[in-house]
Amino acid sequence: MRRERRQFLLRLGAALALAPLATCRSSGRYEEYGALRSYVARPEATAKRAPALLVLPGERGIDAHIEDVTKRAAQAGFLAIAPDLSSEASEPTSKLLALIDEVAARSQAADLGALGYSSGGTAALRLAARSEKLAAVVAYYAPLPPVLEVPRLKARLLLHFAQNDAQINTGVPAYEGALNAAGVANAIHVYPGTSHGFAEESDARRYRAEAAALAWERTVAFLRDALA
What we know:
This protein has helices spanning 2-17, 20-23, 64-75, 93-105, 119-128, 166-169, 172-182, 209-226; strands at 28-33, 36-41, 50-56, 79-83, 109-117, 136-140, 156-164, 186-195.
């Protein structure tokens, strides 16, 4: 009976953590930010400036999942901006760096962070090695950049990995060692029983609600602390 109750509470907690997907009051729309068309969601009006968060999509580009994440981030209190990179024929780093500069310069942006999924997480980590304006980075199951870039990182990092993602995970020990050696503040979580893409609710085959809810809870708490 106690075990059944615990399982029920876990399922309930997961449902509540992801409830904003269905009931999110924040809305998003496409706007031009610098040279990039972006999907933007704003938090409800507050007396203080909202911290800004770049939401970097993975290989699928801006889909329903990224739009939902952007709106959830806005509901959590962030000015959330997801740049559309689908039309970029060349490597978009220079345009993303220009986007960081523009967002940082706008009056409504306080501190600035980045959240990326898969290759978008890789991009977030590489941007943090090239711009000190990023104070915090969250990456979900991201192929990790070369460890040679680690000493240039100034941002705090939160990294989420799936347990069953061998190709990605082989690089984690060396990257974590380099982060710790360089004194880069980091937290790394591996989610048991999950595969690459476990947080993407639009993919029923890989989606794991409890792991996704826990990862999102950790993400929001981390960003609120790092970008306060």
